[in-house]
Specification:
Length: 232
């Protein structure tokens, strides 16, 4: 990997599957118990905040019983040892990358551990149990909500992601179906700027045709192998 200096890694639900967190569109996916419209839209939050909070409370509670897997640990090792630029952009809202030790990362769809004030934008750690319309400590408004990017809302830190895509030499996508934009379009942006592109996924994805190379298999096997390769 002599000509690779700046790397972007995009991860999706598939990297957490072997930790026991259901993916969204696979068999038994998270959406099967809940229609997307029921829980992941601002309209749903306005119509039935208790259901939305309960859905995320269930997902947050599940975090207590799962552990990072070999793929998370391999990316944390890359983070610690890679001398060039690295940005891990996760679509996931779990905290498994952090618990494995990753530092150079961001959650573009938000995270379960955080509460957001819909009024002033202040964030706070999600305090155990948070009923709907809890009061924001920063501004006093009864406006705390899950810090999750709902469908139709703009993902977080897109400027930072776009800057990184414009300067990366290698774009690696791990465990994502390529079903949701803007993340699904990142591979084409990276290619436009001349990056090499690699997909590590259990199945072919909607974006597989855009990758220079697609390796099919479980992240727990493919990611450690790839990190060994790239660290040389
Ligand atoms: N190893 C590698 N890949 C896997 C594994 C595994 N063990 N298990 C499943 N996969 C792959 C599947 O083949 C699929 O392509 O992970 C992908 C999971 O796809 P989705 O369930 O669609 O999850 P994701 O791509 O992260 O969804 C993107 O959609 O619902 C929204 O906001 C939500 O962030 C999410 C976004
Ligand atoms: Zn506030």
């Amino acid at each position: 990997m002599q000509d690779i200096r700046n790397i972007i890694v995009l991860t999706g639900a598939g990297i957490s599957a072997e930790s026991g967190i259901a993916t969204f569109r696979g068999p038994g996916g998270l959406w099967e118990g809940h229609r997307v419209e029921d829980v992941c839209t601002a309209e749903a939050l306005a119509a039935d905040a208790e259901l939305v909070h309960r859905f995320y409370d269930m997902r947050r509670a599940a975090l207590a019983s799962v552990q990072p897997n070999a793929a998370h640990h391999a990316l944390a090792r890359l983070d610690a040892e890679w001398p060039g630029e690295l940005l891990i952009v996760t679509q996931n809202v779990d905290d498994l990358h952090e618990r494995a030790g990753a530092k150079r990362m961001l959650h573009m769809h938000g995270e379960l551990r955080s509460a957001l004030c819909a009024d002033c934008g202040a964030r706070a750690a999600w305090p155990g149990d948070l009923p709907p319309r809890s009061v924001c400590a920063a501004c006093g408004a009864p406006a705390l909500r899950p810090d999750i990017v709902f469908f139709g809302e703009m993902p977080y830190q897109m400027d930072r992601i776009e800057d990184a895509l414009a300067t990366c030499d290698l774009f690696v996508s791990i465990g994502t179906s390529g079903a949701v934009y803007p993340a699904a379009g990142f591979v084409q942006t990276a290619r436009h700027y001349g990056a090499r592109t690699l997909e590590l996924n259990l199945d072919p994805s909607a974006g597989s045709i855009f990758f220079d190379e697609s390796r099919m298999g479980a992240a727990g096997k493919l990611v450690p192998e790839w990190v060994d390769e790239v660290l040389g």
